[in-house]
Specification:
The chain is an alpha/beta fold and 214 residues long. It is built from eleven helices and six strands. Strand 1, helix 1 and strand 2 form a beta-alpha-beta unit. Helix 2 runs parallel beside helix 3 and helix 8 packs across helix 11. InterPro entries: CheY-like_superfamily, Sig_transdc_resp-reg_receiver, Tscrpt_reg_LuxR_C, WalR-like, WH-like_DNA-bd_sf.
Length: 214
């Protein structure tokens, strides 16, 4: 796995690089600003980019903008975004173009090495990794629509774990139920959200977006 890190905090940037190299992962470049990051993406063609949301010069959304541009330049690039706080607009914007190969974690999660590495590998494999605290805070801030209000408490639990990027097996383990039960809950969620099978769209992604949006 070839990785580029974009983080303006030198301690966190170098700490991430040391952590990943200790796990025998190939950190091909680090960058402290969007321009250097995009140049590294062009040069090294990484598999994954780890990107801070807030970067110079204004420390607002430069990281998100750079991540979107990096994926335009290198289709298929997996991106794991790190943020010190829950940035509601940035989280939903990041997912709006499709959730495959994308992750959004709070920086404090990096200290939980096993969880951080699991999220990194999930994103690199084309999955989704959303910090459970991000999911919880976004859900608390957003009013559910009428369809979401029809979900049972257990279906809400299943959908929240789907939003974290977990598959059916992992959801079953978290909730201590069978995979068959999880499958039934997901089918019920799709039915209550009026999500019919469609080759053009991933119903899991649409359900998660419905959950995160206002």
């Amino acid at each position: 796995m070839r990785i580029v890190i974009a983080e303006d905090d030198p301690l966190l940037r170098e700490g991430l690089a040391l952590l990943l190299r200790a796990e025998s992962l190939d950190v091909v470049a680090t960058a402290e600003d969007p321009a250097t990051f995009l140049a590294a993406v062009d040069e090294h063609k990484p598999d994954v980019a780890i990107v801070d949301v807030r970067m110079p010069p204004t420390h607002t959304d430069e990281g998100i903008v750079a991540a979107v541009e990096a994926r335009r330049r290198l289709p298929g690039l997996a991106v794991l975004v790190l943020s010190a706080y829950v940035e509601q607009a940035f989280a939903t914007d990041l997912l709006a173009g499709g959730a495959a190969g994308l992750g959004y974690l709070l920086k404090e999660r990096v200290g939980r090495v096993e969880e951080f590495l699991e999220a990194l590998h999930r994103v690199a494999d084309g999955g989704t990794a959303i910090d459970p605290e991000v999911v919880g805070l976004l859900l608390a801030r957003n009013r559910p629509d009428d369809a979401l209000a029809r979900l049972s408490p257990r279906e809400h639990d299943v959908l929240a774990l789907m939003a974290e990027g977990l598959g059916n097996t992992a959801i079953a383990e978290k909730l201590v139920v069978t995979e068959g039960a999880v499958h039934k809950h997901i089918r019920s969620i799709f039915a209550k959200l009026d999500l019919a099978p469609d080759d053009r769209a991933d119903r899991r992604v649409i359900a998660v977006l419905r959950y995160l949006r206002k």
